[in-house]
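User: I'm preparing a small set of examples for a lab meeting where we compare how different chains pack in three dimensions. I only have the primary sequence for this one, and I'd like the structure in token form so I can line it up with the others. Please keep the answer compact; I'll paste it straight into my notes.
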Amino acid sequence: MKKFFTSLFARYLWQSRLPICLFLAYSLIFAAVFSLYDLETEAVLYAFSLSMLLYAFVLSVHFFFYRKSHKERMRILKEISLFTDALPKPATLAEADYQEMVRQLKKLLDESVTCRQNDLQESMDYYTAWIHQIKTPISVMKMTLEGEDTDECRELLAELFRIEQYAEMALNYLRLGSETSDYVFSEYDLDVIIRQAVRKYAPQFIRKKIRLQYEPRHIMALTDEKWLLFIVEQLLSNSIKYTQEGSVTITVSPEPLIKIADTGIGIAAEDLPRIFEKGYTGYNGRMDKKSTGLGLYLCKTAAKRLSHKITADSSPKKGTAITIDLRSNTAPLE
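Assistant: Understood. Below is the structure token output for the 334-residue chain.
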């Protein structure tokens, strides 16, 4: 507080430097003129002191109102979107002009924001409808291929599964970027959520001959089922993608924590700090040529919206372990 007052007073003195300098100049002129007429020094100093005292009093009063006005402006600035029409009464014509500029700029900003929100909503509606429509031919192709048990059909089913996952990722990308919320927080059994993800990716585990190690624990956690399922599915997808042989282990601990560890190719040490960045693919992604760099970014974003934490630990050629920490959840129940 003292530092703020000192800084504000210094700025006030600098802003008032012209009248202060003029007052000092006038005082020196009068003192010089009085001394030329051989007036007593005591009388000159007395008049000068009275003038300085009066000016200091006027300056103090003026600074008081200056500080009061500054605090009022800072209060309005914190909630400028609400107080644009409640600006303090202008003391000068210049202030009135500036306030009118602020109102006009706020009006233009509101129009721009509204226009952008409408454009974003239209885009989201279009792409959401498109993604839901593309699922229909995917489902038809899946049913057709499932009727024949051949190596070629199994390969095509795997590719269709990847297409379906990319469509789901695009839909979730749009949802996470939207200002609307469809979160439903409650106490959920983590085993129920994990089993849904495991069932979905079971054919991929079988196809790549990767072992899945998971022991149900029936631990409850406050979360959103749909979005936590999305995170777990994406992490399983990455584990399967970058694990050629070995196993994927899912561990649930009472804290509660969910840990998904694989024996895949791992992540380079220089890439590890950036794997949750949007669009960052790292060495593995550049080698694969098909990575979008969105999967882990969406996991991090969704976890943040749920007030969860997600961290990674990895060593090249030894595997990767991703931990979802649900202890930090402070979201209210809905």
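A couple of notes for your slides: The chain has a mean pLDDT of 82. The chain has three domains: 2-78, 120-177, 185-325.

User: Perfect, thanks.
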